Amino acid sequence: MRIFNTQNVIVLGLIGFGGFLGFWTLLSVSGLIPSLFLPSPASVIERFVFLLSHRFAGGTLIDHLWASMLRFGGGFGLAVLIGVPLGLLMGWFRLLDDIVTPLFDAVRFIAPIAWVPFAALWFGTGIGGPIMIIFAGAFPPCLINAYRGAKFADPRLIEAAQMLGTPDRRMITEILLPSAVPSIIAGLRISAGLGWQSLVGAELIVASTGIGYMMVQGQGNVSTTTVMAGMIGIGFIGMVIDIALRRVEEAILRRRGLSV
Amino acid sequence: MGAIRFDNVGRIYGTKQDGFEALKGVNLDIADREFMAVVGPSGCGKTTCLRFVAGFDQPTSGIVSVDGVQVTKPGPDRAVVFQQFALMPWKTVCENIELGLRNKGVPKAERIKKVNDILALMSLTSYADAFPHQLSGGMQQRVSIARAYVLDPEVLLMDEPFGALDAQTRVVMQEELVRLARRNPRTVMFITHAVEEAVYLADRVAIMARQPGRVKEIIDIRSVREAERWDDHEKIEDVMDLESFVHLRTQIWRSLRQEKAMEIA
Ligand SMILES: Nc1ncnc2c1ncn2[C@@H]1O[C@H](COP(=O)(O)OP(=O)(O)OP(=O)(O)O)[C@@H](O)[C@H]1O
Ligand SMILES: [Mg+2]
Q1: B100 vs A165: CB contact, 8 Å cut-off?
Q2: Which of A212, A225, B35, B157 could form a disulfide with B188 if both were Cys (CB 3.0 to 4.6 A apart)?
Q3: Nearest to B247 by CA among B228, B261, B233, B264
Q4: In which order are the strands placed within the sheet that holds B20-30?
Q5: Can you give the residue ranges of the ABC transporter domain (chain B) (predicted)?
């Protein structure tokens, strides 16, 4: 008998969520914490539903989430488009590796939020600022995982490809890239998570729409339910992004006959 | 063209001072279009030698050359059939076989024809669009052989290519290889553990010894085969029954046996 079949896993997940909500409800009805500091789940959900169809800070919750997702798409897309090819190239060309790695190792420890002043300075309130900050968060995992995936490609397959006379370009696109795909997808999941997180941080400061902006406005109005509704929206979209990437990962692994 | 020469070749793993001496003073000449089988106990350095010719590894002393030119890097003029297949798991059988031809710039129509021919020869036609993980070990090995054959290389390097095959398929592949080798001779370095296989296929058999790895003895098969007209027999079992075959086989067995006995002593 398998305990961890799909159905049970879903049930266990629901137990976790239910327990959390129950604890939260208990805390807020007990009156130990004033409702301004910790709104009840019911009031948050009520606010969430309200914001879905009513404008707040220039748009509905959907509008804000959509604006955020566009920025996220821009920054994340850019990170993937630059990070993955660069990582693969570094995994194949030793010279490039030696040039880029020291610089990269220093820069990647700078938190994305640290770029905010420059983002504001360079891009004002335009779309460039948040995109740059998301990029700063999403780029390192893309590059690192593509690089590692290429570096740890099966040396026997590389030898086989060399023996077949495979030129550098094809080596990267047809041997290293497919070898690195599992690692790249894992990197994309981390990257999407970090990018989505830094987006909200960025919007707290530079944007004039978006879920982060909405939360700042909520805070300004001392509407903690709005802030929490925003948090739910962020968590939900983050989860959807991750589930989508996990699906891609599973599909690719299955195609190769590797079990998931 | 494709004469292989090992000139006093040595290979030390680790540092020169306290490294492991895998090969020492290996001398071996494989003539153009000669079929050389290499036998020897496990770990004597057969694969290491083959990797030098393929250009995957360099000796720490001595020189390995093909047609008088020192080998420095791998290339499609020296096709390899690997001990562990080494097929691209994300490419279909057809794509795996086609890769080398694409790299050579062979036009599409010609590629398709060549791939189809080799698929038929290897009885793989119905698996053209399968992925390696969907095939048995024996079938994967056939794909790996097809991938090398299709390049029609000067030099064919085969590392226990029939090791993963069942007895029947193995015999078919051996007979096929003999037919190919007689019709379109190539320089072949063929590593095997099976002494019968070596005697049946090769022009000469190099026997290697261990600790340190070296070529201990070279047995000429070709002169006997031609004198006794082995090739008149179509089936491998008929050849294996011939007295001249049994005699050579026993000679090689004995040489390998001595090696084992010395190790135990
Ligand atoms: N990369 C390596 N590092 C250290 N030692 C190695 C390395 N590659 C091979 N060796 C050693 O060199 C020796 C020869 O190895 P090799 O693989 O050539 O043997 P082989 O004759 O092909 O054996 P088998 O018949 O089992 O395939 C072995 O003792 C092995 O342990
Ligand atoms: Mg070996």
Answers
A1: yes
A2: B35
A3: B228
A4: B20-30, B4-13, B61-66, B69-70
A5: 4-235
CA A93 to chain centroid, in Å, comes to 29
- Mutation pick from B47, B52, B56, B83 vs chain A, by most beta carbons of A within 10 Å, is B56
Output the DSSP codes for A17-38.
HHHHHHHHHHHHHHTSS-TTTS
Strand pairing report for B214-220 and B78-81: unpaired
Pairing of strands B204-209, B214-220: antiparallel
Q: What are the residue ranges spanned by the domains of chain A? A: 1-34, 39-255
Q: Nearest-CA residue of chain B relative to A259?
A: B133
Closest residue in chain B to residue A158, using alpha carbons only: B86
Q: What is the pLDDT along chain A (260 residues), one digit of tens a residue?
A: 566 777 888 888 889 888 988 888 888 888 788 877 888 888 888 999 998 888 888 889 899 999 899 999 999 999 999 999 999 999 999 888 888 888 888 888 888 888 888 888 888 777 788 888 899 999 999 999 999 999 999 999 999 999 999 999 999 999 999 999 989 999 999 999 999 888 877 887 767 788 888 988 888 888 888 988 999 999 999 999 999 988 888 888 777 766 54
Alpha-carbon distance of A169 to A198, in angstroms, equals: 34
Cα–Cα nearest to B6, from B79, B61, B77: B61
Q: Which residue has the tokens 């002494």?
A: B195
Inter-residue contact B204 to B34 (CB < 8 Å):
yes
Task: Note if the pTM is more than 0.90.
Answer: no
- A117-176 residues touching B, CB cutoff 8 A: 154, 156-157, 159-167, 170, 174-175
The CATH homologous superfamily of the domain defined by B4-77+153-264:
P-loop containing nucleotide triphosphate hydrolases (3.40.50.300)
Rg (CA), chain A: 22
CA B232 to chain CA mean position, Å: 24
Q: Crossing angle, helix A177-205 and helix A224-255, to 10 degrees? A: 170
Helices of type H across chain B: 46-54, 93-104, 108-121, 137-149, 167-183, 195-201, 222-227, 236-241, 243-264
Distance (Å, whole) CA B209 – CA B45? 9
Domain A39-255, CATH? 1.10.3720.10
